[in-house]
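Below is a filled-in request sheet from our internal design queue. Each sheet records the structural input a requester submitted and the sequence that came back. We keep these sheets so that new team members can see what a complete request looks like end to end.

REQUESTER: design group, bay 2
PRIORITY: normal
MODE: inverse folding
CHAIN LENGTH: 409
BACKBONE (tokenized):
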């Protein structure tokens, strides 16, 4: 199992200068190598039996790849001695990023989905670098020893888990400071618990009135952090818009302040997602959720509220935490789950303003989102993983209990 632990760094002023210089040098070389790939592509993208409009009489160049561009780092260090200060693993990882960005543009990822055309990184647009071979011994007390950078103060708010080995270390620059992310690995930890109790399962319905409602009646209110910070953000962005000189220090301070406000909203939302995921996984071992078309919903008049809720991020966090806990999350098709009665499967038409489910056939009355959560779980019971554990019934088996939201995750 792989984990990622992130800690805050407190570098000295001289170390901040070194970190910023490294990022700027890596950005410059990233742009150079990306331009080299684009130059080759413009001259060689036509088939062999066709002549490109933009052609050269020069002999064709060898296609640049990860290995050829990595070999060019030797010449780079000879011609520009400043790059000798940067650790070799950091430079090689930068070359790898160029290759990944270009390959995803031409070939796509493992699922065949292609990314957009890679962009050249402007000043301040290159935010991180990675040591690809880190070690547990790098952390000594409240310090982390980074090769060619020295010892930097580390705010270790939680210890690294026992049995896990540190594999990589990524140093990133954010609006509110510097951070280091350790990638940990322990191959002895299983990903899914073979003894999952399917009776401890539930379906959840995501929404904008409540963030989520479970099939057994737990309502988690939606915090709307962006909505609450909207007035202050608008005020600071108006002040930023008045700074016309893009090279002035005052404008740079305003940019930093607006970025910190946005970072605070994002951190609040992320913290809420983590705590809500922990709340669910402490009680349930199988969680069925909706496979929502979030991109489509984000193009409607509800776009701001959809982005503020962050359903996609929450589902990803929930799936990752479930894997660590040996639990299971199942995505189901939400079509018709609101209109169908969870007791007798009858179709009960509702409008968006109807917040109660009242079935005229069986007499079931409950919250419409709770009814939808029950239907989610009924559909999840047909999942192959659950069928392998002997589940065949589609009856509602989760008992109704009250579970207040804890103050901490």
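RETURNED SEQUENCE:
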């Amino acid at each position: 199992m792989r984990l990622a632990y992130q800690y805050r760094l407190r570098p000295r002023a001289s170390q901040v200068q070194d970190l910023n210089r490294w990022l700027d040098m890596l950005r410059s070389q990233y742009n150079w190598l990306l331009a080299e790939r684009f130059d080759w592509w413009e001259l060689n993208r036509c088939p062999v039996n066709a002549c490109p409009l933009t052609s050269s009489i020069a002999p064709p160049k060898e296609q640049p790849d990860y290995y050829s561009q990595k070999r060019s780092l030797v010449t780079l260090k000879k011609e520009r001695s400043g790059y000798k200060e940067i650790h070799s693993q950091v430079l090689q990882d930068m070359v790898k990023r160029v290759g990944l960005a270009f390959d995803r543009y031409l070939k796509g990822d493992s699922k065949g989905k292609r990314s957009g055309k890679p962009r050249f990184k402007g000043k301040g647009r290159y935010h991180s670098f990675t040591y690809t071979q880190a070690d547990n011994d790098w952390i000594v007390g409240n310090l982390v020893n980074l090769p060619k950078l020295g010892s930097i103060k580390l705010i270790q708010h939680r210890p690294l888990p026992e049995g896990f080995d540190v594999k990589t270390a990524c140093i990133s620059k954010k609006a509110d400071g510097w951070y280091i992310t350790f990638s940990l690995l322990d191959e002895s930890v299983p990903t899914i618990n073979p003894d999952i109790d399917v009776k401890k399962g539930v379906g959840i319905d995501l929404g904008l009135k409540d963030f989520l409602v479970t099939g057994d009646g737990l309502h988690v209110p939606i915090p709307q952090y962006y909505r609450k910070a909207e007035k202050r953000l608008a005020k600071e962005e108006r002040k930023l818009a008045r700074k016309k000189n893009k090279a002035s220090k005052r404008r740079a301070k305003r940019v930093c302040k607006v970025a910190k406000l946005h970072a605070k909203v994002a951190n609040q939302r992320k913290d809420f997602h983590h705590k809500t995921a922990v709340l669910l996984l402490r009680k349930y071992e199988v969680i069925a959720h909706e496979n929502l078309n979030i991109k489509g919903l984000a193009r409607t008049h509800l776009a701001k509220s959809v982005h503020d809720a962050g359903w996609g991020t929450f589902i990803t966090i929930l799936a990752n935490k479930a894997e660590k806990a040996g639990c299971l999350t199942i995505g189901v098709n939400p079509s018709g789950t609101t209109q169908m009665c969870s007791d007798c499967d009858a179709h009960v038409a509702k409008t968006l303003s109807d917040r109660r489910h009242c079935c005229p056939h069986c007499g079931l009355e409950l919250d419409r989102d709770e009814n939808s959560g029950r239907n989610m779980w009924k559909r999840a019971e047909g999942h192959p993983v659950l069928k392998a554990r002997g589940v065949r019934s589609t009856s509602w088996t989760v008992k109704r209990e009250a579970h207040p939201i804890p103050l901490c995750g």
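SHEET NOTES:
- Residues 128 and 172 are 4 Å apart (CA to CA).
- The radius of gyration is 26 Å.
FILED BY: M.R.
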